[in-house]
Design a protein that fits this description.
The protein has 164 residues and is mostly helical. The chain contains six helices and three strands; from the N terminus they run H-H-E-H-H-E-E-H-H. The protein starts with a helix and ends with a helix.
Length: 164
């Protein structure tokens, strides 16, 4: 490969990794996807090891994660016993789906936290002093605001899905 093209490819792969990390995604997985995305042919695990200079186990583990995202798929190459992979070229869909699933996971975590916190406050209700009851009321009001934000985030995801 031409040296300047290789420099451009390296910069792209590095930038995709940094961008993914800024969104809370795994930098290496994004870089692995970027290598496959730029490739004009399916690549084997050995090709990816050579390109990214990491262990085959690391590549294999992370390629499985990309398959879960729908970002890559395994392809058969006639005459070869190796596993080959190619990227889903719809990068917008790949990353929006991943970000959506990450946001949904966080919303679920917030929902569980609210449920747990409400349960603790409710279970203490009969044992509280007058001042503590006022504090519990404030806790419930604040939780209600968090629930409203959770609902808003869920609605935003639904709206965004229509445009992706």
């Amino acid at each position: 490969m031409n040296g300047k093209l290789e420099i451009a490819q390296d910069k792209f792969i590095e930038s995709v990794g940094k961008l993914a990390a800024s969104f809370g995604l795994n930098k290496f997985i994004a870089q692995l996807y970027a290598v496959l995305y730029l490739s004009n042919k399916p690549l084997s695990l050995d090709d990816l090891v050579e390109r990214l200079v990491v262990s085959k186990g690391n590549i294999s583990l992370n390629i499985r994660e990309l398959e879960k995202w729908g970002a890559v798929k395994s392809v058969w190459i006639k005459g070869s016993r190796k596993d080959y992979y190619e990227a889903n070229p719809d990068i917008k869909k790949v990353f929006s789906n991943k970000i959506k699933s990450a946001v949904e996971k966080r919303i679920g975590e917030v929902s569980n936290m609210i449920t747990e916190f409400k349960g603790i406050v409710d279970s203490a209700e009969g044992e509280l002093t007058a001042d503590e009851k006022k504090m519990a009321k404030i806790f419930r009001e604040r939780l209600k605001r968090i629930e409203e934000m959770e609902s808003l985030a869920s609605k935003a995801i639904s709206i965004a899905e229509k445009f992706i």
